[in-house]
Write a structure and sequence with these properties.
The chain is of the alpha/beta class and 377 residues long. The protein is 38% helix and 14% strand. The chain has 14 helices and 11 strands. The structure holds iron/sulfur cluster. Iron/sulfur cluster binds at residues 262-264, 342-344, 347, 349-351, 366, 369-370, 373.
């Protein structure tokens, strides 16, 4: 197999940006598959998308031959995401699923992101470092107490406090060591009422203690798993983003995703903030990547969901029976996807995802907005 040389991830090369598929192929195109590779984790975060479905033993995964066959059938596959649970927790899963996926991606020149809590022994992460393009970690910990409580919020029998505190230190030193050794570590912070008072501290830790190359900022939306945490109002989100831009370290890439701010919404504050974000060096705005060009596959059941919209759509297919490109085409034709799929090329905007629309713009018809925008462009 010939290895395709990948350009390094940078502000100008973000393979997860959904608009790049539109640039290349003229339409939304399946280019990213996320695999849920384990249900096991050493933590149980209250805000974790899968926190309440975690198990103590993984079932037998589907044969890798079926999984790689389904990947072979996707001609424009560009990125893989590996998520859990904690993908590096189970040695069996690392051996039987994670490493074969990493090798597959390497051989095809596909970018790989792993979603990890980075609290396990460093050796596990060093072992796979050469295959990872983005090590993605959530950092919503305003204080170590938040980590030891919220980070285990969904766990009935928590480890002793000292052990939980040690995991926090391990996360920080792992991130720093991996960053210093050249791994691209990207920390994501959700904007919500819990993180808002601590954003300066969190950013400082991400930049200076963990030495992350990128700090991702996403407003938190009230999907099922996050319903118990406090969502910020639109006004608070905007004020918070201005504040972040005031104190951020200008040498560190800050990526804003899933922002509820669109060129077609006639609101001066929105447009001023949008311009500020666009004009600030080392800042990027990513069209929400989830569900635009991506499907999630569970390696145990084969179930396919539209990433992060699982609450809305449920399982839409299964790789035992269907090719992933067919599943994606069918999803794009569904009434829900059709009601969301607007595109204004002048602004490189692909419209809101379902969570953003339901939360902030339930009565806005974005298809109509698109027509109006195209009239004036
Ligand atoms: S793509 Fe949709 S959300 Fe974006 S500006 Fe156009 S109509 Fe508005």
């Amino acid at each position: 197999m010939i290895h395709t040389k990948k350009q390094p991830i940078s502000l100008y090369n973000d393979p997860w940006e959904a608009h790049s598929d539109v640039d290349t192929y003229g339409q939304l195109t399946l280019s990213n598959i996320e695999f849920t590779t384990t249900n096991l984790c050493n933590m149980r975060c209250s805000h974790c998308a899968v926190g309440y479905t975690l198990q103590t033993q993984d079932p037998t995964p589907l044969p890798m031959s079926l999984i790689t066959k389904r990947l072979d059938e996707i001609p424009h596959l560009k990125t893989l995401s590996i998520t859990g649970g904690e993908p590096m927790f189970s040695k069996k899963s690392i051996r039987e699923v994670v490493k074969p996926l990493l090798r597959y991606a390497y051989d095809r020149g596909i970018y790989v992101q792993m979603n990890s809590n980075l609290t396990l022994p460093l050796d596990r992460y060093l072992d796979i470092a050469e295959y990872i393009d983005v090590m993605h970690i959530s950092h919503n910990w305003g204080t170590i107490d938040t980590f030891t409580s919220v980070g285990f919020g969904a766990m009935a029998q928590k480890p002793p406090l000292k052990a939980r505190e040690k995991l926090y230190e391990q996360m920080i030193t792992n991130a720093r060591t991996l960053s210093e050794q050249g791994m691209f570590v990207s920390a994501e912070t959700m904007l919500n009422k819990s993180t808002k008072p601590y954003l300066e501290r969190i950013h400082h830790e991400v930049v200076h203690d963990m030495k992350c190359e990128r700090h991702e900022i996403h407003p938190m939306y009230p999907s099922d798993f996050a319903s118990q945490l406090d969502v910020l109002s639109l006004a608070d989100i905007k004020e918070t983003i201005h504040h972040l831009l005031d104190f951020r370290d200008s040498a560190t890439w800050m990526l804003f995703g899933t922002l509820p701010i669109f060129p077609c919404i006639q609101n001066n504050e929105d447009q001023q903030l949008r311009q500020r974000l666009l004009n600030t060096p080392n800042v990027s705005l990513r069209n929400d990547p989830d569900g635009r060009s991506r499907l999630n596959v569970n390696v145990f059941t084969g179930n396919v969901i539209v990433t992060d919209f699982g609450d809305e759509t449920g399982t839409i297919s299964n790789i035992k029976y269907d090719k992933l490109n067919d599943v994606f085409d069918k999803w794009l034709k569904s009434p829900l996807a059709q009601s969301l799929n607007c595109h204004c090329p002048k602004y490189r905007c692909l419209g809101p995802n379902v969570l953003v629309k339901n939360m902030y713009y339930p009565n806005v018809d974005f298809n109509q907005k698109e027509i109006e925008m195209h009239r004036t462009q």
